Amino acid sequence: MARNKIRVAHSKFQVPTAVQGFLLLCLAVLLALSSFSFIDGEPSKNWLGLFGHITSWGFQYLFGLTSLLIPVYIGWYGTMLLLNKPILHPRWKMAWFCLALFSLSVLFSMVAQAKPMLASYFGRWVYSEFYPKGAIFAPEGLRHYLGGVPVHHLYFDTNQFSLYRIFGGVGTFLIFFCTFVVSGVLLTNVRLSPLMKKMKESIKKLQEHKPRLERLKAAISRPKIIERPFAGIELEPPPPMVANPDPIPQEKRETTAPVSKSAPTGKLSHYTLPPSSLLTHVKQIDPSTLKNDLRRQAEVLEETFASFGIEAKVGEIHCGPTITSFEVHPAVGVKVQKIKALENDIALNMQAKSIRIIAPIPGKAAVGIEVPNFHPQEVGFRELLENYKRAGKKCHIPLLLGKVVNGDDVWTDLTKMPHLIIAGATGSGKSVCINTIVMSILMNNSPDEIKLVIVDPKKVELTGYSRLPHMLAPVITEPGEACAGLGWLVKEMEKRYEIFRILGTRNIHGFNARKINKELEESFEYEIPKKMPYIVVIIDELADLMMVSSSDIETPIARIAQMARAVGIHLILATQRPSREVITGLIKANFPTRIAFKVANRVNSQIIIDENGAESLLGNGDMLFMPPGSSNLVRTQGAFIRDEDINNVIDFICDQAPTDYLIPSFNALLRQDNSSPDGEGNDPLYREAKALVFETGNASTTFLQRKLKIGYARAASLMDELEAMGIIGPGEGAKPRKIFYPSQSKDDR
């Protein structure tokens, strides 16, 4: 009996098989709940709380998406034990399952490396990490470990002994695909011979029904089924009288119309556009140097919010050429203005010269924080040009501006703007932007397509373009000549509208695309040109012109901005002093598209873009672009082009075509028009000025300025005309001028 008692005391306690199965089944359910509710970085949303989040994070870190099979296997094993069904070779089953799990992890890692966009769909459920991809750290720039971190490093990141380096991409796929299939067959005890037999029977039945399927295909009218839903849909109706014909050869572009002095001459039949090889590439920065910087900045940003009691998490990171945009997702209950109030504190902690906070980002439940890069990257004009031509999008007047925060190119069509204001302090990149705009036109348009009128009061920035065949006249450097040039543009606009009225066309596109009827057009009083070129007017420093004569400048600019879009005349104004005296309300209302570089203060920023932000820019090409048809600002890094590249392009163009000014001098043209033989001045206000002098008996420059609401230069010109016509006498110092009334003058004036 003693021996029996000793044996009973030392016998092992065994858990019943059904209880083991039930416990394994409960464990599988818990793992499944924690895995399916796992969201990386959000433990509060896990169904099993912090414990479930940590457990799921560990499985995702080690196995990726394949970790979802672990609770399935445990649940199957527990069900077999609970039902008391025998499991043959359980240890071998475990080995086959581990081998299938590893093979599938390798295949998922290959998908994550080859197709990052596809892997991003599972980004919220797997462990993710930022990694360098060019200079863009957009959502597709995240590395999503679909197969787990260790397997991914084994496949790709191990320098000497990675699977990719040893077997290659195709070899690795074939090896582990076959391994997965074999281990799956051994795990499930599936017999291949019955499976192959069923596949053969299915193929045989399909071949038997093939003639019937062919008859069904013939009976079905597929085009009607496909086209019927789209029969009445038109996304954007084409404007009337506008067409986009095939390009007309250059040799046919000639004119017989002296009415429009800017009509194409047709002398450039063999003109070729400058190649991009004339431009140089900019130096690229190794993207691997940005990885650690981005991680550290994201950590500092989250720590900064935590130190001020704000719960927020950094989401997507977009790394641009010069700035990085962090999308911050605040917790529920955090006010956006509370984050915006920390602008200076965030800049201090991130050691940034200045930052910009977008609260909130339009269309997203996030706050954007733009921080300067430690290693800024230049944006080359050659890269923009090649990308634009590769895209195959044809703009009438393309403007290649730069790159946005996520690295996308920014180009637009001036005809859709239709006018542009550029403002920025000295050294902010305004002059480089103007050169980039001019080069965008030269690299994509021939002299027969576009004519340029450039006003450069500084006399050094843009005078190098004077010898181009694209120039309608030499570069204007004097304010008086600028007034005359704007006056000529107003007359040219009116002439073009008169031609459009005669032909019944509505805009320059319809005019150039019309079918020419020689008999009809020759019967009109005006001689009609075959084609009309666009005219782009670039004024480098508007403030200097407005200081000399604001009224004489503001009025023609407003008229051109309001009416000249349809006739193909477009304005680009630039100033380094965006005050209300320069960018008046009348000018601003007709320029919806604007570019703001770094300005001195918030007042200037509000004048140019109607909100703050331009005062926080970095300079050196960093700008805020308000595109046409939108009020949302786009942070853009302007393209850079060297003076040597500009000179190379100018030399290439001038070697093909000599300078041929349609107007040698606006001043000479004005003097020629003023000496009209009809006894009346050319100025439209001449008759009104003469009537005022006769009615009031007062003849002075300031009097005409006040009554006619014009500038000093125009009033002085009217006084000279009145004196030349014999209406008033010459000046006699402080004495008033003599007025010769009609009864006193030699002839009735």
Question: Mind sketching the topology for me?
Answer:
Layout: H1 2-10, H2 17-36, H3 49-63, H4 69-82, H5 90-114, H6 116-119, E1 128-130, E2 142-144, H7 149-157, H8 163-188, H9 192-208, H10 210-219, H11 222-227, H12 288-307, E3 312-319, E4 323-330, H13 336-340, H14 343-349, E5 356-358, E6 367-372, H15 381-391, E7 398-404, E8 409-413, E9 420-423, H16 430-444, E10 450-455, H17 479-503, H18 508-512, H19 518-522, E11 534-539, H20 542-548, H21 550-563, E12 569-575, H22 585-589, E13 593-596, H23 602-609, E14 622-626, E15 634-638, H24 643-656, H25 666-674, H26 686-696, H27 701-708, H28 712-724
Parallel strand pairs: 9-12, 9-13, 10-11, 11-12
Antiparallel strand pairs: 1-2, 3-4, 4-6, 5-6, 7-8, 7-15, 13-14, 14-15
| Tally of individual domains | 5
The CATH architecture assignment of the largest domain turns out to be: 3-Layer(aba) Sandwich
Mean pLDDT: 78
Instruction: Report the CATH topology name of the largest domain.
Output: Rossmann fold
* Ends distance: 151 Å
Poorly predicted runs are 1-10, 132-141, 216-266, 745-749
CATH superfamily of the largest domain: P-loop containing nucleotide triphosphate hydrolases
- Estimated radius of gyration: 38 Å
